[in-house]
Write a structure and sequence with these properties.
Largest sheet: 8 strands, mixed, barrel
Structural class: alpha/beta
Strand content: 15-25%
CATH topology: TIM Barrel
CATH superfamily: Glycosidases
Strand order of the largest sheet: 2-3-5-6-7-8-9-10
CATH class: Alpha Beta
Shape: globular
Distance between the termini: 38 Å
């Protein structure tokens, strides 16, 4: 499947001159939605609610994305990027600072996410995130990434009861919201969502991973703001595969959401 044939909006390539006679990296002003010119190495034929019905798309990136030409990616429809910042209480993604600067220079709406560990208190993890993610003008709300961690040698087998999980989430969320002045977004997976009864965890916007089923199928009756629909996206300007995400709304709704959610 290619998304370039499913959207009517033409790509906008606006290179604005900056002081001193040079050019900036901005491909289009922040918030200006550009239609996705994406491909997928392993496309899924979603039934009913297809990603192509949503006009505003973006990516998430971490150290695995070693080479991103952010200006080129922006011109190909990367309107937003959620960037991995921290894990647990002492791990900083080595690519975060470069990704953060590059996305900002290119006019990509950028946000940072924290991968949660159950072997460190939420207070320590919240302080670690705050220490490493600057308050930047135009930044998206911070994201709490909640999923079981099968890779950590110390945390892989720690799976608390749902009540404990929800309590730790609330503690992290409260601290981070107070610091950034924005209510965070929750990212999760179908298994974690079900096992920890997050259908009852209200008051937050959700970013949902589901690459085989639609959100309606994988998370019945759950409202959502972002959908991570592929882990095998191909975008000119990004070396290798990358996660693809859709915003749940029209272009006008994207602009309104962005104006209400970005840091002043």
């Amino acid at each position: 499947m290619t998304l370039r044939t499913t959207f009517a909006l033409m790509l906008i390539a606006v290179l604005t001159a900056c002081g001193g006679g040079g050019t900036s990296d901005v491909a289009a002003p922040l918030g200006t939605p550009i239609a996705p010119n994406f491909r997928d190495a392993d496309p899924v034929d979603f039934k009913g609610q297809k990603p192509a019905r949503f006009p505003v798309h973006g990516i998430d990136a971490a150290r695995f994305q070693k080479s991103i030409n952010w200006s080129q990616a922006r011109r190909n429809g990367v309107n937003f990027a959620f960037l991995k910042a921290t894990e647990g209480g002492d791990l900083l993604d080595p690519a975060f600072k470069d990704h953060w600067r590059g996305a900002g220079r290119a006019g990509v709406a950028r946000g940072a996410y924290h991968f949660y560990y159950f072997c460190t208190t939420p207070e320590v993890q919240a302080r670690w995130f705050i220490r490493n993610v600057p308050k930047s003008k135009g930044m998206l709300p911070p994201v709490l990434d909640m999923e079981w961690n099968p890779f950590s040698p110390t945390c892989a087998h720690r799976r608390p009861e749902a009540s404990v999980v929800q309590d730790e989430m609330r503690r992290w969320l409260r601290i981070v919201e107070a610091h950034y002045g924005q209510r965070p977004i929750i990212y999760t997976t179908p298994r974690f969502y079900k096992e920890n009864k997050l259908s009852n965890f209200n008051g937050y916007e959700y970013w949902l991973r589901t690459t085989a089923k639609t959100p309606r199928e994988a998370y019945p009756r759950q409202s959502w703001r972002f959908w991570q629909y592929s882990a095998t996206g191909l975008i000119d300007g990004i070396a290798g595969e990358v996660d693809l995400n859709a915003f749940n709304g029209s272009r006008a709704e994207w602009n309104a959401w962005l104006a209400a959610r970005t840091h002043p």
